[in-house]
Each structure stands twice: as structure tokens, then as C-alpha cells.
Amino acid sequence: MNTCSIRVAFGLMILILIGPVISAASAEENILTLDQLVETAIRKNPGIAISQQEVEASRARLTQTKSAYLPQVSAITGYTRLNQWNTDVFTGKDFRGQYEDYQAGLSVSQYLYDFGQTSGRVDQSRYSLSASEKGVAKTVADTVRDIKKAYFEVLKIQNLVKVNKESIRIQEEHLSQAKAFYQAGIRPKIDVTKSETEYANSRLTLIRAEYAFQSSRFDLENILGGPPVEGIYTLADVPTLITAEAMDVETLVRQASDRRPEIAGLKDQIKAAQALLKSAQAAYWPSITANAGGGWENNEYPLQEFWQMGVNLSWPIFTGFRTQGKITESRAEIDKLKARLRQSELQIFNEVSVAYLGLNTTIEAIGTSEFAVKQAQENMDLADGRYRNGVGNAIEYSDAELALTQARSNLVQASYQYHQQLVELDHAVGR
After folding, report:
1. Pairing of strands 31-32, 234-235
2. pLDDT of residue 28
């Protein structure tokens, strides 16, 4: 063997030895925790980005309304050429006159007082900005809830796949045993066909579970705003540590009313509508503005200097019931928002109550499912022993295996539904 061949063989040997280590390291890097996914969702979810841009738009509207407090400065310059027919007052003859006008100037106006029209609009924009910020908090809270529930849904179906794979492993062993007994003349052909049927059904159940698993991952990535990482990734499993909720429903509802961002957002919207009502009512009164200006103007050079300054009072006497219409609209908006606030409070009471009940239900379901798994395993061991000793039959074995698989599936579902219900309760309370 030449030197080149030795180097190639040595390189291949190194790759073979360190390949599993590299693969294990890569796999370890792509095991994602729930906290990592929550952080990714907050950063990438498009719904959160939309809410944040709504805040920026509200902040810009506040800047626009506050600009009314500041001086309004404008500059003007222009040139005008006028060509027209005139009549001489002495001779009565018509003649064509041509005139040129040059002008340049600067004008300044300053709001002084308008009985609350401007301040009402500024307050309305300020409370609207606060409400939009509460909207971002609600979107983030909803996204965190959705990503957590989707995370536990993936883990639930992933463990159901494991349960189904274990069922198939048991079915394969039983099928091999049934074939051996049949060939030895100990068992009839029906044991083999029944085992084959049960095996085929288990394979079908596994196929459906694997499809549901992939579908749940797609749902998770949709909430995330795309795959969390490049390449293959897995989710870190979590233990089911049951903690009973120490508070009663009434206490949790009071906490939710203080913490939920949509309640605070609606209260800000009501304040914004009340500020707009104040601005509309002030339209019945005059507005006072100071004005000043100056510049240069003439029909030929050099231009002549001019200036002017004063205070204007504008008082609308009749506007075709426009002001009255705005006041009525603002009052209706306030009443509508108060009704929405009451509706949200009732909805929060329902969400907290349902989540609290669901959490306690899953806690009881876990205890019952654990006992059922224990009993089903004992029954399975008995059925397997009886079948191996020629005392039991295929139906008894099949029923025991089906009961064990169902009990394990129920325990998996109850365990992860507990996590999901805990997420629902935390979200309902605003934690």
C-alpha cells in the first residue's frame, strides 16, 4: 500500500471514529427548550411585529396633534404678471395694462387658547398610544400562550408515537410467537391471522400518529414565524410536576382584571373617547390665535418692506349641526367601549373558570390514568403468560394489549393536557 492510500485509509478511520461524536453534538445543539421557542416567537412572530408598528403609528399621531401647541411658520415667495384691459377715466379710451408683482415674506401663527379643542385631541392621541401599547402586550401574551400550547401538543403526539411504536413491537413479538405455535401445531391458524390483523391496525395507527406529529410541528412553526433553526431539531421534553392551584376562582378573576392588558387597553380607549368628547364640546366656543408676518412686495425693484401682526378670534356661530353630531358620536363611542369592557370582564371570568376547572380535571385524570396503566400492565403480563403456557387465547391477549396501549395513551394525553391547561390558566389570569 502506498503512502497516499495509507493517508486516505487513516482519514476514513478518523471520520468513522469521530462521526458519531459530531452527530451527537449537532443533535444536542438542536434540542430546543420551551424558553428558547418563546424567545424566538417574540422575535419573529408577524402578529407581534404588526402590533409594534401600530404603536409607532399611534406615537406619530400624538406628535401630529401636539404640533398644534407649537408656532406654525411658513415662507412665501412669488412672481405675478397681470395683463388686462383698462379704461382711462379722462379720455374714456381703453388701453392694455401690464403689471408685474414681486413678493417674498414670512408668516407665523401661534395657538393661544381654544377652550379645550386642542388639548382634548392631544389627550385622545396620548390615551390611544397607551391603548396600542397594551395591544402589544396582549399580542405577546396570546403568542406566548399559543407557542406553549403548541409546544406541549408536539410533545404529546411525539410520546403517543412512542406508545404506538411500543404497541407494534409487542404485536411483532406476538405475531412471531403465534406463527411458531401454529407451525408446531399448538395453536390454530386463526391466531396468526388475528395477530396479523392487529399488527396491521397498529401500523395504521402509527402512520396517523406520525402524520399528526408532523402537522403539529407545522402548527408550531407557523406561530414561531418559521422554523426556529436551520436543519433538524427536536424539542426538550418536560416532566409532569403537578402543583395544585392554591387560590379560588374569585381571587384569580380579581387578579386577571388587574393584569390582563386588554382590560387596561379598553380603559385607555374609554379615556381617549372622553377626551375626544371634550374636544368636540369645546367647538362651541371660540379659538384665539396670534398672527405675525412680514416681507417685501412691489411691482418693480426695489421691493418695499411690509409687516403685520395681530390676534384673531374665530367663533363658529352655526356649522349645520356638525358639532352636535360629533358630540353625539363621541358619547356613543364611550357607551360602546364601556359595553365592550363589561363584555371582556365577563369573558375573562369565563376563561379563568374554565381553565381552573380544566386544570383540576387533568390532575384527577393523571392519577386515574397512572392507576389504569399499572392495572393494564399487570393484566398484560398475565395474558402473555397464559398465552405462552397454552392456557389463554389470542382474543384475551389482544384485548389486554389494546387495553395497555389505550391506558398508556390516556396517560400521555392527560400529562400534556395538564401542561396545556396550566398555560391556559396562566394566560387567563395574566401571569
Report:
1. parallel
2. 53
- C-beta atoms surrounding 252 within 10 Å: 22
Contact 173, 166 (CB under 8 A): no
Instruction: Tell me the residue type at 381.
Output: D
Could you tell me the three cell numbers for 90?
379722462
Is 292 domain-assigned?
no
- CATH value at residue 375: 1.20.1600.10
C-alpha cell at 385: 403468560
Q: Cell numbers for 345, please give them.
A: 370582564
Number of neighbours of residue 320 by Cβ within 10 angstroms: 7
pLDDT digits (tens, 9 = 90+) for 170-220: 988 888 888 888 888 888 888 889 888 988 999 999 999 999 999 999 999
For the chain, the 3-state helix, strand and coil shares in percent, each to the nearest 5, are 70, 15, 15
Give the global pTM.
Answer: 0.80
Please check whether residue 152 lies inside any domain of the structure. yes
- How many secondary structure helices (H) and strands (E) does the chain include? 9, 6
Number of domains comprising the chain:
1
d(CA 84, CA 95): 9
149 with 222: CB under 8 angstroms? no
Q: Residue 394's pLDDT band (boundaries 50, 70, 90)? A: confident
> Would you tell me the crossing angle of helices 117-183 and 322-388 to the nearest 10 degrees?
20
On whether residue 239 sits in a domain, the answer given is yes
Domain that holds residue 318: 31-81+109-286+313-429
pLDDT 10s digits, 16-26: 444 444 444 44
pLDDT at position 80, please? 83
Q: Is residue 54 part of a domain?
A: yes
CA distance 133 to 138: 9
Q: What is the pLDDT of residues 255-296, one digit of tens each?
A: 999 999 999 999 999 999 999 999 999 989 999 999 988 888
